[in-house]
Amino acid sequence: MTDELELLKKDWQNKELNVPKLSYEDIHKMIWKKSSSIVKWILIISILEFSVPHLLYLSPSMREGMEVYEKIGISQYLFGLSVFVYAVALYFIFQFYKRFKEISVLDNSKNLMRKIIKTRKTVKHYVIFSLSMIMVTIIIMVVGVYLNDNIALAFPEFKEGLVHVSQEKLKITIMLAIGIFGVILTLVMGGVYFLLYGLLLRRLKKNYTELRQLEI
User: Fold this and answer.
1) C-alpha–C-alpha distance, residues 32 and 23, integer Å
2) What residues contact residue 108 under an 8 Å CB cut-off, 6+ apart?
3) Cβ contacts of 61-70, under 8 Å, gap ≥ 24
4) Distance between alpha carbon 32 and the CA centroid of its chain, in Å?
5) What are phi and psi of 169, to 5 degrees?
6) In 32-135, where do the E strands start and end?
7) Segment 50-68, tens digit of pLDDT
């Protein structure tokens, strides 16, 4: 039994000798490359998120929706909000590009950790802003319906069915429907952001933790 144990020890020692040992610099370089790749994906996703929805404006249903906004009387407010959202979204995309360029430069561990923290904060602020703008859009729609004097005109396809429905009841129904839709949309988008950006942020946090361990 003792002889077998000694043989196992020798075999393990021989295997251990064959395992390549990574230096501090090697591990740091690996973490740096992983972090750079993660930030690149954050940049790519943000660009796709900004550009892909614009394709929806080509669909007939989206154009019909814009007509409804005009009839409700909120098209000018939504247009102003859209300009603001686009400007801020482009600002965040530029920030993600800056973070990518910064983190792509091989640097010492302390600076790399600082860049990771900055990137995580930028992404979190972007997600909070995006979800907030969804809710602001919904609020504008609800207020627009509330202030409209003849809401039935905004939905001519349902005009016959709405003849016997009072304006107040119709307003409340539409406002509730928009509000519920807004909450669901915010939750869905929050889930999407959690899956996409959350996964990338967790990987960045793991890299940050590994760098801290290197410094200890």
Assistant:
1) 14
2) none
3) 68/154, 68/155, 69/141, 69/144
4) 23
5) -65, -40
6) none
7) 887 766 666 666 666 677 7
